[in-house]
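Thread amino acids onto this structure.
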């Protein structure tokens, strides 16, 4: 009997992300396929939510815990829907009233918007919000590499090597994170050896893999797949990855240690604001107040972020 060749492609090893729901188990039928029909950054039931929160995605793990605690503290609140994408999709959802995800259309308006201050300033200028308040800051950027660091990447200078492929967020679809990462690389490389061409030369040589639109999911996937040897990500994102995927990744600090980050000069620290959209509904102002509570501060601190006073 002649054995037929197996010409099928190997199934990609998609990261098994934990679910991020608020409240009790919704007891719904679950159906998804990791390579196509799965939606990780829209959480809950928009049709039955009394509190809707739009947020930039890089602190999604802490926001989920805060919303869950807020729901426990307010039993009369029937439901929460929250989005944790880069700013562009949720800004356009607010402006247009709808967002298409494949063949699914979501129409929902937020009560609270959390994002970098420059994003919210534009929404204030256009009348969607009356203002925003400082909410938190991060602890700079780090390098995410595979467990055991097979390429022996120890610093930004190692990223210049020809055998190292680098992942960066997309400069067009995720401008805020790209600027933080790019500027960190440029400043640190200049500080170390006065080289003014990095990372531009790395990009020009085709050794940089850019994400498409949601780097807080794409960066670890690219490193896990071996399509990139290192990714520049916020410290708190990398902390999340090594906690939920401890056998896959490790962190290369850019100042300080993994447990005590101290960003060196040039390592960009980014800020986040929060504010009410419109009148905030029945729960928006209460949630903004909760974000200033000791409980919320403890949650965000655990996840590697610094709440503002």
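Threaded sequence (309 positions):
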């Amino acid at each position: 009997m002649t054995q037929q060749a197996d010409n099928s492609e190997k199934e990609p090893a998609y990261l098994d992300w934990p679910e991020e729901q608020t409240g009790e188990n919704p007891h719904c039928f679950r159906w998804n396929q990791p390579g196509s029909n799965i939606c990780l950054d829209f959480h809950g039931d928009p049709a039955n939510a009394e509190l809707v929160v739009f947020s930039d995605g890089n602190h999604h793990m802490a926001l989920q815990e805060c919303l869950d605690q807020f729901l426990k503290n307010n039993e009369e609140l029937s439901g929460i829907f929250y989005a944790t994408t880069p700013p562009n999709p949720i800004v356009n959802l607010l402006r247009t009233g709808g967002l298409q995800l494949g063949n699914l259309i979501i129409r929902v308006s937020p009560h609270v918007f959390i994002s970098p201050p420059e994003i919210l300033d534009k929404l204030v200028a256009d009348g969607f919000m009356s203002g925003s308040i400082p909410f938190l800051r991060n602890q700079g950027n780090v390098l995410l590499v595979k467990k055991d660091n097979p390429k022996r990447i120890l610093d930004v200078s190692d990223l210049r090597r020809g055998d190292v492929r680098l992942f960066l967020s997309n400069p067009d679809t995720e401008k805020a994170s790209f600027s933080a990462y790019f500027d960190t690389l440029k400043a640190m490389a200049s500080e170390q050896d006065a080289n003014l061409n990095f990372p531009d030369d790395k990009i020009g040589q085709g050794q940089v893999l850019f994400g498409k639109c949601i780097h807080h999911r794409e960066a670890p996937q690219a490193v896990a797949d071996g399509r990139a040897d290192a990714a520049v990500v916020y410290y708190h994102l990398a902390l999340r990855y090594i906690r939920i995927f401890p056998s896959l990744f490790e962190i290369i600090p850019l100042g300080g240690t993994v447990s005590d980050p101290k960003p060196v000069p040039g390592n960009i620290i980014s800020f986040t604001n929060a504010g009410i959209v419109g009148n905030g509904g029945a729960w928006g102002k209460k949630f903004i107040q909760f974000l200033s509570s000791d409980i919320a501060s403890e949650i965000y601190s655990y996840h590697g972020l610094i709440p503002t006073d």
